[in-house]
Amino acid sequence: AGVANVEAKVLRKARKLAVAVGGLAGVFGSLVGVGGGVLISPIIANACKTIPQRVISGTSLAAVAATGSAAGYVYYTSGAVDLTSAALIAVAAVATAPLGARATKVFDCAMLRRLMAYWLFIVAPLVPLKPYLMKTYAGTGPDGTSATGTSVSPTTPDATSATPDVDGAEKPLWRPLRSSDAVLVATGTVAGFASGLLGIGGGTIVTPLLTIATGLPQLSVLGTSLAAMVAPSLIGLAQHARMGNVDVLMAAGLVLGTTLGSSAGSRLALELPDGVLEWVFCIGMLYLGRKTLAGARATATPAPAAAAVAGAKAPQGAAGAAAAVGGTASAPKA
């Protein structure tokens, strides 16, 4: 069932919530470095339980694409995007995002929401783990080399960003391929499928694996992750639109909210202590996962329950009919 089959009053409620939910997702997403879809999808699903999950997944990709485009451009103009890594992730994700979108037709609403809940449970711990990974790997690529293949020290600040050197020479944004790039391709494959299936950007798994595989500094990891998921989100959005899973008005509200929220969150991030928000976000994701899983179970319960009730009534009806027949048959004997 697509947008056409959603009740009008439920759709109106989702549209009214879109700006606020998008704003919340934009603020927290920019603070902890993940896309807004991982918050938008479960919040809308829990607030509007009768909206099919495939509609939420398809519509939320508009916000993911908008956030990635706006923030990714800012990072790119600051030289904080590794174009080679972004391209490898994007190419793999573009190939699997439409497959994820089409897979929403295979699963019913309850199963899709269970998958979203399981995804939240899996990726929630990766958010507070990210600062540790940044301290351990940021600034050093595989075998102690930078993104450009030169030897760097683990403590070298921003050693892999495409910013001018002290002598004025600008480091290239493109770099040679290396064996660790296979991790990026695999990451893009999973993130793209999850993006199309669940309506998320995949930043929760892209950023930690990107850090380990490339050793990029924090800003470059965030910028590269955002830039890499723009094209897959747009491809997934287009596929969902063809399937009738995108509500234009809700999508517009989400885009507006995430744009405003991302701007506010970026400024707020400069004043808040490191590490605290990651744990708050982790706990929030676990809570949303629990709520989403409970909603999935509630969605799946009515059908078996109805069958059980029908089954219980059937023997009673048969027994009643037999009794009535028996009573009718015994009446002449009396």
3D architecture notes:
There is one protein chain. By secondary structure, the chain is mostly helical. It has helices at about 10-30, 35-45, 55-75, 85-105, 110-125, 125-135, 180-200, 205-215, 220-230, 230-240, 250-270, 275-300, 300-330. Helix 5 (about 110-125) packs antiparallel against helix 12 (about 275-300), helix 6 packs parallel to helix 8 and helix 7 runs antiparallel to helix 8 (about 205-215). The longest helix is centred in the C-terminal third of the chain and has 29 residues, at about 300-330.
- Helical run tally: 13
Which H/E pattern describes the elements?
HHHHHHHHHHHHH
Cα gyration radius (Å): 25 Å
Question: What is the molecular shape?
Answer: globular
Mean pLDDT: 78
Let me know the largest β-sheet: none
The level of helicity is over 70%
User: Regions with pLDDT < 50 over 5+ consecutive residues?
Assistant: 143-169, 303-310, 312-334
Number of strands: 0
- Helix-strand makeup class: mainly alpha
Beta-sheet strand percentage?
Answer: under 5%
How widely separated are the two ends?
60 Å
Task: Draw up the topology in text.
Layout: H1 8-32, H2 37-47, H3 53-77, H4 83-103, H5 109-123, H6 126-137, H7 181-198, H8 203-214, H9 218-228, H10 230-242, H11 248-269, H12 276-300, H13 302-330
Helix pairs in contact: 1-2, 1-11, 2-3, 2-5, 2-12, 3-7, 3-9, 3-10, 3-11, 4-7, 4-9, 4-10, 5-12, 6-8, 6-12, 7-8, 8-9
In short:
The chain is mostly helical and 334 residues long. The chain is built from 13 helices and no strands.
